Amino acid sequence: MDAEKFAYEMIEVPDDRLVQAIYKGMGKARQLRRRQYVTRSLTAAAAAFALLVCSANVPSLYAYAKEIPVLGEFVRALHVGGGGESTRHEDIEIEISDSELVLHFIDKGRTTDTVAPYEVQYYSAPSRIALTLQSLTEEEYGKLESGIRSMNGVEDVYRTQAEGKDEISFAIVLDRLYDYEVIEQIFPGMLSIRLFQDAYYTAEERAPEQKVYYLRTKGMEQDEEFRSLLVKYRAESPAQVKTQEGSFILTIGEFASEEEAENRLAELQKNYGGAAEFRVSSGMAKEVPEK
Predict the structure, then answer these.
(1) Using one digit for the tens of pLDDT, what is the confidence trace for 105-160?
(2) What are the start and end residues of each CATH 3.30.70.1070 domain in the chain?
(3) What is the CATH number of domain 211-284?
(4) In b/e form, how buried is each residue of 216-236, taking b as 16+ CB within 10 angstroms?
């Protein structure tokens, strides 16, 4: 038995090929399970990776392990939701690699152990990520937006009106057939936005060629009128969209049929004594409104 164990442990496993296979497998898992199962998939991947590290007897793999957030430092992977905690920082540091952005918060010259509070929402008409970050300065946001614009899979980035005084909100419009995931880790704190091409759609998702119905306002500047409508309809969770001509509209809901949208408009009119600011509109899931 000892001789067999010695022979097994002496088997050489190419480090790079093993790690590539692990990453490839994780990528396929994301495409197959997608949103509902991403956390479960990452946890399983962590267990599988830990098993491989132990059983393959390849010490150098431990160096790779610390670079993969599912091991030890992983907090959550999400498509919609939020996380983070109050994090004192003096600056931010951004790393861009093709279709991935990694955000670190810096305090006294070192990366903080946690990340600042954040919220993530997704809308399909047009396909975009709505992000809100707390405790970000205007200068830091400028640095962040510049980094996002350089990512593969990004069509546009623009500021939106935030609810809180210490919050900065913005939208990332995705290119056609791109999806995403947001990953948070601690020790050190890291917030990662990963974009990836994905042509697979589940029954709950809207394909690029599918028409989406929603309620919308006229195009406006981000002025006092716009802000007052945000406050008035806050309970309806209105979304903010930048049109092709550069104006902004508020939208409510995303519906599969015109009838659903009309029913929602009737409900809105009943609850708000008219709601004349909104009308039913539609567009493809990846289409930006003209005006």
Answers:
(1) 999 999 999 999 999 999 999 999 999 999 999 999 999 999 999 999 999 999 99
(2) 211-284
(3) 3.30.70.1070
(4) bbebbebeeebeebbeebeeb
Least confident of 11-25, 56-70, 134-148, 180-194: 56-70
pLDDT at 176: 85
What does the buried/exposed string (b/e) look like for 80-90 if buried means 16 or more CB atoms within 10 Å of the residue's CB? eeebbeebebe
Top-level class of domain 78-197: mainly beta
- pLDDT bracket for residue 209 (50, 70, 90): confident
